[in-house]
Amino acid sequence: MNRSKLSVSKVLIFNAFYEPPLSHLKAAKILLKYMLALTLGTLVLTGCSNTPQYVNQPLQSVPLVSPVDLANSSKVKSRLLRQYQDWKGTPYHYGGTSRNGVDCSAFVQNTFYSQLGYKLPRTTRTQIKIGKKVTKSNLKVGDIVFFKTSSRSLHNGIYIGGSKFIHASSSQGVTISSLNNLYWRKIYLTSVRVR
């Protein structure tokens, strides 16, 4: 046991014998506040980089369509905008995979499966490893754009042209955003092309 834990233990043991019972309540409240802060901090830092173990719900999407030629930008954009219209405003929910709530990587996975006919892995950490890396200046409709939202968390969306991308935003739900927005420009990480 290190010194700080030992000191805290001594204080708690001392208080247990020499303080009235009210101090136990104060100690419990302080401990509860620290535990709550730690839990909230962990949730904020994880983002949608991975799927929680407890989420065991099937991906809700329409049946697989025949694969779309991803080089056909107009057809890909049409399918992506169709998906956006169907999912627009769906709230963000970490680990969610349905219209009741979806996270960024599930939205990307669902869109590629239901609209473009391609199966992708579930998480941003696995989706970033597929396809071919593309520079920001060479983006094409259908490329997946990635952002580093914290030291341990990634976010992603699908490029639709004109410096815009569709994604499941933690603050706005499924929406269209601009890569030129200061926030997205600052945290842009990379892009991949599925071909």
Describe the overall structure.
- The chain has 195 residues and is α+β, with helices and mostly antiparallel strands.
- It has two domains: 3-45; 73-193, endopeptidase fold (from Nostoc punctiforme) (Alpha-Beta Complex).
- The protein has six helices and eight strands.
- Helix 3 crosses helix 4.
- The longest helix has 25 residues, at 22-46.
- The radius of gyration is 22 Å and the shape is elongated.
List keywords for this structure.
195 residues; alpha+beta; endopeptidase fold (from Nostoc punctiforme); 6-stranded antiparallel sheet; two-stranded antiparallel ribbon; 6 helices
Question: What's this entry about, in short?
Answer:
With 195 residues, the protein is α+β, with helices and mostly antiparallel strands.
CATH class of the largest domain: Alpha Beta
Q: Tell me the β content.
A: 15-25%
Question: Would you identify the CATH architecture of the largest domain?
Answer: Alpha-Beta Complex
SSE pattern, N- to C-terminal: HHHEEHHEEEEEHE
Principal-axes shape call: elongated
CATH topology of the largest domain: endopeptidase fold (from Nostoc punctiforme)
Radius of gyration: 22 Å
Largest sheet: 6 strands, antiparallel
Draw up the topology in text.
Elements: H1 3-18, H2 22-46, H3 73-87, E1 97-98, E2 101-102, H4 104-116, H5 124-127, E3 132-134, E4 144-148, E5 154-161, E6 164-169, E7 173-178, H6 182-187, E8 188-193
Antiparallel strand pairs: 1-2, 3-8, 4-5, 4-8, 5-6, 6-7
Helix pairs in contact: 3-4
